[in-house]
């Protein structure tokens, strides 16, 4: 699996609709609206790099109101949540 972070610029009056449409796309795990240089940040997880090449330009970029995307591919996760999840596999709460 490949994880990528997609920074998305959207027309100001279309941010909520664009965020919902992007969140509904297969492969999109999370979408955040944010302050700063971009309007939305999407976390995507796909099977391979080809999946990113399909999802971002063919689907995310085509959502009405999306002006521009910048994609960053994640190499490794350092999240404590990921470590905690890995250690809890097979254990019941």
UniProtKB/TrEMBL annotation:
Gene3D superfamilies: 3.30.70.920
Pfam families (UniProt xref): AsnC_trans_reg
Top-level taxon in the UniProt lineage: Bacteria
Transcription regulator AsnC/Lrp ligand binding domain span: 6-76
Signal sequence interval, chain numbering: none
Protein's name according to its UniProt entry: Lrp/AsnC family transcriptional regulator
Native organism: Nakamurella flava
Lineage, opening ranks: Bacteria, Bacillati, Actinomycetota, Actinomycetes, Nakamurellales
